[in-house]
Amino acid sequence: MSNVELAAAMTMGSLFDGIGGFPLGAARYGIKTIWASEIEPFPMEVTKRRFPSMVHKGDITKLSGKLLFPVDIICGGSPCQDLSVAGARAGLSGARSGLFMEQIRIIKEMRTAERERGRTGVQIRPRYMAWENVPGAFSSGSPKGEDFRIVLEEILRVYDGSATIPRPFPYPWHDAGEIRVEGTFSLAWRCLDAQLCEASHNCAYVQNGIMKRKEPKSCISRN
Prior knowledge:
This protein is of the alpha/beta class and 223 residues long. Helix content is 24%, strand content 18%. The chain contains five helices and nine strands; from the N terminus they run αβαβαββαβαββββ. The strands form three sheets. Strands 3-2-1-4-5 form a five-stranded parallel sheet, sandwiched between helices. Strands 6-7 form a two-stranded antiparallel ribbon. Strands 8-9 form a two-stranded antiparallel ribbon. The longest helix is centred in the middle third of the chain and has 17 residues, at 100-116. It starts with a helix and ends in a 10-residue tail after the last strand.
């Protein structure tokens, strides 16, 4: 089976869904998003129109991974305000960015339920997860960079509940890296420059129902 055929057979659940960025990217590769979690009314109206078959599940803190329909991939871009260098830097201890732990909880609960249903090995869902956030995650926490260490450790503990991740030496975290365990688990991260996607050059706004572009000097980029 080719990579394209494999992707087309996959399903996904989207946490912190927003206006459906992850479902849009997934759809372009044939991956179907089954359900999503979002609480803001306007983004939900956008995705209800763009992805009418996607079921909205509401507040992530009220969801149970055991009760959600099992999917191959769980993605999410948890709130960045507490990790961003533009914020107060409360980090993962903050009420908003700390919601990352809800994503981990749901993944663990779903995998536990799958084992209880008799699934084993690679049959256990979700098999994959994706987390998106700001570069400030690399430097957030005390000591500096501790929050990203926690993120990596919590993801690894989906596979091995007693696993630990050491701090990088010397600081800082690299923009890209990977962790492999016994050929059965892998984790990788990469920080991409938004300018490569023209995010800082093609800012736009809506006025009287007409999309208009702003000049680059008027765009604000916060990491």
